[in-house]
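Mods, move this if it's the wrong board.
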Amino acid sequence: MIARELKEKLRSRQTQIGTFVKLADPTALEVLGLAGMDFAIIDTEHAPCDQMLLLDMIRAADSVGLPTIVRVPEGAEPHILKALDVGASGVQIPGLSTVEEIREAVSFTKYAPRGVRGLSFAQRSAGYGTKEKFQYMQDSNDGLINVVHIENKDAAARVEELCALEDIDVLFIGPMDISQSLGHPGDPGHEDVQKAVHKVIDVCNSKGKSFGIFVGTPEAAQKYMELGASYIALASDLAFMRKGYQAMTAELKK
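Not the wrong board. C-alpha cells:
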C-alpha cells in the first residue's frame, strides 16, 4: 500500500515534496511519478475533474508508485467517499472552521469503530471484492492519509485542539486563504497573515504534529522546510509547464 509508506514518513516528520495537479489528464500523474515527486495532490476543488477521470488519474499514479491525495471540494461525505473508494492514498479537506466540522469530516474517512465511512467491498479500493474484508478495513483505517486545511482565522485559532485529533496526519496551511480571512486578500506576506501562519507552525512543532504549506518556489520551500514543514506542496503542474515554456521561449527570443 503506497499510502502507508508516505504516511509513516509524514508521521515521523520527514520532508516530502509534492505538487498540485490541475491538468485533467492521467499523463500528468505518470510524469510526476517518473520525475521523482513524493506525492501528488489531485485538485477537485479548483480544477475540472469528474469521477471517471479521477479514477484513471489514480490508476496512472499507481502504475508509477506515486501516492495520490485528493483535495476534495468540501468536507462532505460523498466527496470524501468517492475519492477513497477509487483508491486515493488520502484526502485533503478544505474550507472548515470548527473542531466539530473537522472531526465530522475526518470521521468520513474511517470505518467503524473509528469513523462512519460508508461500507462497501465492491469498489476499486477493496480490490472489487477480492480483498479479505476485515483486513481491508483495518488497512484502510491505518494507512490512508488525512490532510486538513488551516485556511481561515477560525481554524488557525483552534490549532492546538486540531493537533490533538489523532486521525489528522497533516495540518495544511493556506496563506492565501488566510489573507482573505484576515481582511488582507491576496497579500499573504502581510504582518497579520504571517503572524497567524507562524502561530500554526509553532504550535504544530511544539505538539509534534506534521504540517504542510503551499509554496510557489524552491526557495520558499526551503524556508518552510527549515521551519519544520514535512508536507510541501510546490506550485502545480500548470505552473511548472508555464514557467518552463516561458523561460525557454524568452531564451530563444533574445
